[in-house]
Amino acid sequence: MNFNAALENIKSYEAGKPIELVVREYGIDKDQIVKLASNENPFGCSPKVKEAVCAIIDNMALYPDDSMVKLKTALSDKYKIQANELIIGAGSDQVIEFAIHAKAHEGSKVLMNSVTFAMYEIYAKQVGAEIIRTASREHKMEEFYALYQEHKPSIIFLCTPNNPTGDGLKASEMVAFIEKIDSNTLVIVDGAYMEYACFKDPAYAVDPCDLIAKFNNVLFLGTFSKAYGLGGMRVGYGIAQDHIIKTLYKVRPPFNITTLSLEAASVALEDEAFVQECIRHNFEEMGRYEEFARAKGIDVIQSYTNFVTLSLPEEKNSSKIAQELLKKGMIVRDLSSYGLNAIRVTIGTSIQNDRFFELTDPLL
Amino acid sequence: MNFNAALENIKSYEAGKPIELVVREYGIDKDQIVKLASNENPFGCSPKVKEAVCAIIDNMALYPDDSMVKLKTALSDKYKIQANELIIGAGSDQVIEFAIHAKAHEGSKVLMNSVTFAMYEIYAKQVGAEIIRTASREHKMEEFYALYQEHKPSIIFLCTPNNPTGDGLKASEMVAFIEKIDSNTLVIVDGAYMEYACFKDPAYAVDPCDLIAKFNNVLFLGTFSKAYGLGGMRVGYGIAQDHIIKTLYKVRPPFNITTLSLEAASVALEDEAFVQECIRHNFEEMGRYEEFARAKGIDVIQSYTNFVTLSLPEEKNSSKIAQELLKKGMIVRDLSSYGLNAIRVTIGTSIQNDRFFELTDPLL
């Protein structure tokens, strides 16, 4: 059977290995496995969320409230925006998919950073779009601007802080760049890790409310998968002016968020103190990774997220090291598929981090 | 901002009104509302499912096992198929989306029944495909075949039992039709209500294992949203030969099923007795609807599902009747948007059904 030609050169997303897979493949006891590969919050979500979800367990049979009024109200309050400036996705991933399906097509161009979140390319290729990438590992606005002028892309992705490297883009620099972009180009600002950047340095904090007040061509993305500790529940969101949201709604499947996920995300927003305490702990522990890297003479990229990226020296191979760690039950992310000789490690609990240092020490 | 031209003539899916919305709009007490609009199992899911989901509530932070091994194993066992003949979607809806994105494009033709599940058209229009429909309300294979010969569609949808009418297609008749279809046309057999048809009449039972053994161009769809009582958890599946599944995987977003939904669906398959008892009750109560309709002189379409479609006489307007019922807290589905002067009613518990008869009696 013939399928659409665009699918021929799509590679699948390489996810962090789930614990179940390591149990099956390596026969390691589940309790011995530490997963620092998918940037999940090691403290999970607020206990209030767990209580709330179990309290509505009888509602699993009922289709979700597709107007999502509870979650939209909570998010609108958080960001001081209107409900019609908001769309909810099954992870911010799905909002990326909506945007690409709505705006890009065969022959469109999509501009993104040299190294960035893999799904931008995968979704863009699904519709036959051409990928344009900058040269540098960091987001350099002058490179983006030169490529914008040359290619006039339909969509520009800015990922700040960037995944999988962890570095950030100053908000003022980003705004100055977007000011030069024509209003028919959709600029997607992926802030999946923005809560961490906001905590670390206000200069890197992007406020979606300001952003959409200023620009009619910007879509900001946020998620509950990272700081809010709900990676398993698949809830993210897009914030943009009403005319963009209305169009994204046209490609949104009905009931795209489960009944329990809507409740979980809504209640997670009620316990901001829990999230802030997790973020504080994150940066405290990040100091230990920086120290470890320094002691080992390894470069660590300055991170505004809940992970650190260790750039390895030439004589050390990131795939081999990740593999060695995996055999011992420590799951980290090898970045060789991104063209980097580096490993990305999620900041865990202090016990998990101890284990990482202990296992990695002899390998580096 | 310009978006893809195909989006211009997309209308959104009209879902059954959620209880929350009726509470907000009509100020009716939540406990007074009966929703018989979305074909949910009125008994919900097995209690074992609720226990299992609450038992893994701590896993909400962890990204789902994207290989979905537990659920795939359980489904493979149920249907006597291989895991690589199976893809899981966020509802069977999402598998429809995968298939259309993989196979159809601008100018493709998609053939479907005159009256059928609304999402086929919505997804097909998103990629700019042209919709071809038969003339009769029931699936008539001779009409399908004539249109197939005339249009050579990329995709044919057969929905059996059909939503929103409830009637079914004999398995032998369907197989005889598919035998005449070239292998480059994807035939999608939507069996969202198949568990009910199997119970009611073996002649209407489609066995996906037989189907894919026989045909290399068929995709069978199933769901946990109906008989398994998990409409809020968004889990459905597609069964087809490996080469089709592999291609659908290329347009599947990673982590498309939540951690809790994977567990819920897996455990639901372990309590088949619960599901069969719900189905038995469904047909017992359906008899009462048929009797009610007969007493009122109203046509009821012979149903192989968990809902009945009451075709109203000309002098009664389905929109008005649905609206009258809504004001009293009874949510049913008006089918006027499908071009039918009919209302669709989910078979509820006997108390819910009593309430329907009581409220509807003076209106008909």
What features would you describe in this structure?
Two copies of one chain form a homodimer. By secondary structure, chain A is of the alpha/beta class. Chain A folds into two domains: 5-45 and 273-363, Aspartate Aminotransferase, domain 1, CATH 3.90.1150.10; 47-271, Aspartate Aminotransferase, domain 2 (3-Layer(aba) Sandwich). Chain A is 40% helix and 14% strand. Chain A is built from 14 helices and 13 strands. A seven-stranded mixed β-sheet of chain A has the order 2-8-7-6-5-3-4, sandwiched between helices. A four-stranded antiparallel β-sheet of chain A has the order 9-10-13-12. A two-stranded parallel sheet of chain A has the order 1-11. In chain A, helix 3 (69-79) packs parallel to helix 11 (259-268) and helix 4 runs parallel beside helix 5 (118-126). The termini of chain A are far apart. Chains A and B meet through helix 1, helix 2, helix 4, helix 10 and helix 11 of A and helix 1, helix 2, helix 4, helix 5 and helix 10 of B.
Task: Note the main sheet of chain A.
Answer: 7 strands, mixed
Number of helices of chain A: 14
Q: What is the number of beta strands of chain A?
A: 13
Secondary-structure element sequence of chain A?
HEHHEHEHEHEHEHHEEHHHEEHEEEH
CATH C-level name of the largest domain in chain A: Alpha Beta
Percent in strands of chain A: 5-15%
Task: Tell me the CATH superfamily of the largest domain in chain A.
Answer: Type I PLP-dependent aspartate aminotransferase-like (Major domain)
Cα-to-Cα separation, first versus last residue of chain A: 49 Å
Largest interface: A-B, 79 and 81 residues
- How many discrete structural domains of chain A? 2
Query: How confident overall, as mean pLDDT of chain A?
Result: 95
CATH structural architecture of the largest domain in chain A: 3-Layer(aba) Sandwich
* Low-confidence parts of chain A: none
